[in-house]
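Catalogue entry: protein
Contents: sequence, fold tokens
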Amino acid sequence: RLSCIRNNVWLACFGVVSAGLAVLSSFGLMLFCGVPFVVTVANAPFLILGVGVDDMFIMIASWEHSSRKVKSDVKSRLAETYAEAALSVTITTLTDVLAFFIGTWTSFSSVRSFCLYTGTAFVFCYIYTMTFFGAIIVLNHKREQGNRHWLTCMPVKVDDDEAQKSCLYNACCIGNCSRQSSQAEGDHPMSIFFKKYYGPFFTNKWVKILVVLLYGAYLGGSIYGCTKIREGIDLRNLAQDDSYVIPYYDDNDKYFSEYGPRIMVVVTESVDYWNETVRLEIENCTQNLE
């Protein structure tokens, strides 16, 4: 928002901080418990940031919608916010946690460590969203009710006749939040689009049939793609940092990568190696393979 009162920059920043705290708490707990830290774990913060920011948007949207039902009581508004947002946040977190904790059953120790770190981080992300970020929402609401600037938190003038001369001064130094308590804000243009156009379009009978057919084609293509997928991961990243496999792959890439894969020839039946003719045949066979 352009209003120096209604601007929620700090609210968004603390939503990202909440995800960062979840990562720090998870990593600290796992390291304290002695879980090995491998290079694949470094990708976990990006996953947590995505889920944490998504939960942040859900909480803020639910808080804004609660103003239409409860206009003055902060406790009632926060309760209404949790009643609307907590269910979707809980379900998404639960599915993510289950997915990663199931991954701990693998025999790869590095994958097991990655799943432990990430799954635990999702748990902490949920806890911080339900506690820390909820408190930040209330503090931001109190700042708005106190008519304080979004950056400096200093009281802002409600009206100033001289301010009309400067658009910059009017945007940065004047504002009020009184209209929020007297009447709820209108629907966001994106909400209007989904409510009036997108939703009715997809509830049409023929559109439903088309969607089912398209999903069937997508599902078939996905199954076919899974049968053609090839391994593309660097195997050395699946080993622990002190594993003998890492120097093996490093030396193999350094000294033997230009020759390609090694080929072995196995003779599966009894051969008269004492016979010179047989030895010549084997030698000729080897030369032909080369």
About this structure: Residues 8-186 form one domain.
